[in-house]
Specification:
mainly alpha; globular
């Protein structure tokens, strides 16, 4: 009797895409995400192949996480980090996932606080209720990529907003 090959790292992208199509939730999606992401970082593969692996990683990431605030923050953080890496190392194109402006807008949309409010709350974060501390921590995590993204953005209000977050991030718990 043949044993299934559980080493997803040896699977082709086509096989992983087909396998993922049948999954709704579960740890298997996280395994697919990490395997696909590792292929993105391999310099031996073509740009197009790496972008296809990146799309698979993003799709698995989006399906894996639930709706809770920590799960959504983790999903966005992982997505933002991968998209930033692709923009930095593989360049931009018409696809919104590889657009610095789209990533900046997605980042700002994921944040529920304004930088000034976050900085004000962070000044006394140890005295805050645990939920507010967590919210500040999620904002710090959700903005981890912005210093790397900002050189790819044109001057303007979006870049200015991210610059505000860049200066506030260091004050967040």
């Amino acid at each position: 009797m043949d044993q299934p090959n559980l080493d997803l790292s040896s699977w082709s992208i086509e096989r992983l895409e087909t396998h993922m199509a049948g999954l709704q939730r579960g740890q298997e999606l996280e395994r697919i995400r990490t395997v696909a992401q590792s292929h993105v970082y391999r310099s031996a593969e073509s740009r197009d192949a790496r972008l296809r692996w990146a799309k698979l990683s993003l799709a698995a990431n989006r399906r894996f996480h639930g709706d809770g605030p920590w799960e959504q923050a983790r999903m966005h953080r992982q997505e933002f980090a991968l998209r930033t890496w692709v923009i930095e190392h593989l360049g931009t194109d018409a696809d919104p996932d590889w657009s610095p402006e789209a990533l900046a807008n997605d980042t700002l949309a994921a944040l529920s606080l304004e930088p000034r409010r976050a900085k004000s709350l962070a000044a006394g974060w140890r005295d805050l209720p645990i939920e507010q501390m967590g919210d500040l921590r999620r904002h710090k995590n959700l903005t981890a990529h912005i210093d790397r993204l900002m050189p790819s953005l044109p001057l303007g209000p979006i870049k200015d907003q991210l610059a505000g977050w860049s200066s506030v991030r260091q004050h967040l718990p």
